Amino acid sequence: MAKKRIVIALGHNDLGTNLPEQKAAVARTAKVIGDFIQEGWQAAIVHSNAPQVGMIHTAMNEFGKQHDGYSKAPMSVCSAMSQGYIGYDLQNGIRSELVRRGIYKPVCTVLTQVTVDTYDEAFYMPVKKIGRYMTAQEAAEEEQKGNYVIEEAGKGFRRIVASPKPVAIVEIDAIKALLDADQMVIACGGGGIPVMEQGCDLKGASAIIEKDLASGLLAKEVDADVLMIITKVDNVTLNYGTPNQQPIYAMSVEEAREFAGRGHFEFASMLPKVNASIDFVENGKGRKAIITSLKMARESIKGKGGTVISQKLL
Length: 314
Prior knowledge:
Layout: E1 5-10, H1 19-38, E2 42-47, H2 50-66, H3 75-100, E3 107-109, E4 113-115, E5 128-134, H4 136-144, E6 148-152, E7 156-161, E8 168-169, H5 172-180, E9 184-186, E10 193-198, E11 201-204, H6 211-221, E12 226-231, E13 236-238, E14 246-248, E15 250-252, H7 253-261, H8 270-281, E16 288-293, H9 297-301, E17 307-310
Parallel strand pairs: 1-2, 1-12, 2-9, 3-9, 4-10, 12-16, 15-17
Antiparallel strand pairs: 4-8, 5-7, 6-7, 10-11, 13-14, 16-17
Helix pairs in contact: 1-3, 2-3, 6-8, 7-8
């Protein structure tokens, strides 16, 4: 009998923002993932990289400015570096948790490239903030290089990059082979390394792919039963942050699409999670998506927590 398959997308709240925080956060997260493995799930893990990729980008570029002979690092390289060191902590933390439970299952990180469309409109409307705050002079220098910057009142300027939609996962066959062999896989970290096809070559794009959309694409490609998106709240809510806030425990894809169209979900936060869930659920039979917090993950898979999105209400 085929095992149940789940793709779990971890948010930055469950990874920390610096090295000590990341170690501690991974230890907590590994316990929850260990529960799923012990209960017989095949799992692929996708993680955020928002604080980490910004830290790497700033560090590499500042070093390049201060030392002759060292070049600055493009966004695609920074994304690859973040996948490596977050994956390193995750795979070791999960492996240790499984070994403590007497489960000897390989855990590996696949450095994952995700193709994007060269003509994606997102390249003309960058939204993802990266790196440290800059002075007006530094911001002007960035703009002269063709980069986009945005001013935040009272704080300074920050660089912003595009967030194009993921098109295809380059290493998908390797990821499928590992899952089919009942191994744990960490893939598409930070939404994947954004690349564009140019003939036989893959060229890194100055962009950050939305991690939740990449998670939904991965879940579709590996034919997962469940897409679980971990975030800081227990449930999706209507009228979030208002006195009329209302938690949602279950939605059909039609209801989710209607609520999204009415502007209930924040553009850069909950909306990508809901859109990824809709796309995943309606492109396969018997699938469901769950949006919830790490502490409610196990209860949610049992239908006792979180927000479940399915073809039809159960």
